[in-house]
Design a protein that fits this description.
Amino acid/polyamine transporter I; 431 residues; mainly alpha
């Protein structure tokens, strides 16, 4: 069998969407709408470009390359191993997985207590990770669990809020604030960039592939085709959901002046629309969104580490679940202090690698294009990440000379320069 039904394609696409859609994805669009006000749709154009297009292109690039290992090995075998390892650790047990529990706790439990009992801080993540562990035991069945149950439930709950906002709107769009007054498209792009979904895109292909093969698809080319199709379905869902959430944020901005983040924007709105019931609905949305992402990341990390070691998938699953549980209750701040700079260093490298992979038909003729582009990008992004931990006047002075440093995108010109140098070196070696 080398063909999926339209129904199965849809569920696989919803599965991928569910794996991507965590707390950050839920918070950023409403806050964008809140700040952008009447410029919300212009800002959303930039947001969709970085928060939807880049991750979906990442899924496509990894699928076309036959996996992240194969894509990264075009730079070198050593780079492939180190880069892939860092990607899985940083987006997995060292940062993203523990954060799913702590973030959902803040939205689903904290609002109902004036003083949080310490026991609740242990019991909640214990239950959260127990459920995630159970659902992650069979990664090939995620399309049945996330795609058919949890994903659609999440979408229904989100659109209950959106429909409530349409039928009983508290007011019109607010006035643009901050950088949204002068450059809404660019600011929207930068806000989408911060979702870090492009890194997650490098990981998720392995699980989507398992789910497609579990449906009876054995041909590698067909698997790649359906992974890309799942990416397109997930991308379409993202555009619809992000647009709906941005609208609610813009309406909230016109009516409620006090909000410092997307969670507060949504809390103000659901409280107005549904009262205490709204807080419960919002809490459920956060729990399901975080749980979906947690399950997806646990599966991806465990599957990868089982392929490079003699330890089984289920053993790694237990290891990562237990580690994430303890980090979520006892050391997340310290881990964040380390992991965020690591992600800042890895993200530009990921984008450049994806771009090269998408146009591999051209760049494969120039064997030095990959190593030169990645080396130039890595040097600048790593220096930038280290400088963000402990600023150094000399390094700061050098970095500021590289445009557009003020937009945290100083790696772009080095990446282009490295690519051009790689093409030139390859051409010289041939002649």
């Amino acid at each position: 069998m080398n063909k999926l039904s339209k129904r199965d394609c849809l569920f696989v696409g919803i599965t991928l969407f569910s794996m991507f859609f965590g707390a950050g994805n839920l918070i950023f669009p409403p806050f964008l709408g809140f700040q952008a006000g009447t410029s919300v749709w212009i800002a959303m154009a930039g947001f969709i470009l970085s928060a939807v297009c880049l991750p979906i292109l990442g899924v496509a690039a990894v699928a076309k390359s036959g996996g992240l290992d194969n894509l990264a090995s075009r730079v070198s075998k050593k780079f492939s191993f180190i880069f892939t390892l860092l990607i899985y650790l940083s987006i997995g047990p060292c940062l993203a997985i523990p954060r799913t529990a702590s973030t959902s706790f803040e939205m689903a439990v904290t609002p109902f207590f004036s003083n949080i009992p310490y026991a609740a801080k242990i019991i909640y993540p214990l239950i959260f990770f127990a459920v995630a562990l159970f659902l992650a035991l069979n990664p090939e069945k995620l399309s049945d669990r996330l795609g058919k149950i949890l994903g659609p439930t999440l979408l229904i709950l989100i659109f209950i809020i959106v429909i409530g906002c349409v039928l009983h709107s508290p007011g019109g769009y607010g006035t643009p604030t901050g950088k949204y007054t002068s450059s809404p498209v660019l600011q929207g792009f930068l806000d989408g960039y911060l979702t870090m979904d492009t890194i997650a895109a490098l990981n998720f292909g392995i699980i989507i592939s398992l789910n497609i093969r579990n449906k009876g698809i054995s041909d590698d080319n067909s698997v790649v085709k359906y992974i890309i199709l799942a990416g397109l379905i997930a991308g379409a869902l993202f555009i619809v959901v992000y647009s709906a959430l941005a609208h609610t944020g813009a309406v909230s901005g016109g009516s409620f002046a006090d909000a410092s983040n997307g969670a507060e924007v949504l809390t103000n709105l659901v409280s107005f629309l549904f009262g205490k019931v709204g807080i419960i609905i919002l809490g459920l949305i956060f729990v399901i969104a975080c749980l979906n992402t947690c399950i997806g990341l646990l599966c991806c990390c465990s599957e990868y580490f089982s392929t490079i070691t003699k330890i089984s998938y289920k053993s790694w699953l237990f290891i990562f679940t237990i580690a994430s549980f303890f980090i979520s209750i006892a050391g997340l701040n310290a881990i964040l202090a380390i992991s965020v700079p690591v992600l800042n260093a890895l993200y530009p490298i990921s984008i450049v690698l994806i771009a090269l992979g998408l146009f591999n038909g051209f760049f494969k003729k120039f064997k030095y294009s990959y190593p030169c582009a990645i080396t130039f990008t890595a040097v600048v992004s790593i220096i930038y990440a280290l400088n963000s931990i402990k600023p150094t006047p000399v390094i700061e002075a050098v970095l500021t000379k590289i445009p557009p440093y003020n937009l945290d995108l100083c790696w772009i010109i080095p990446a282009v320069a490295g690519t051009v140098l790689g093409i030139i070196l390859s051409s010289v070696k041939k002649s």
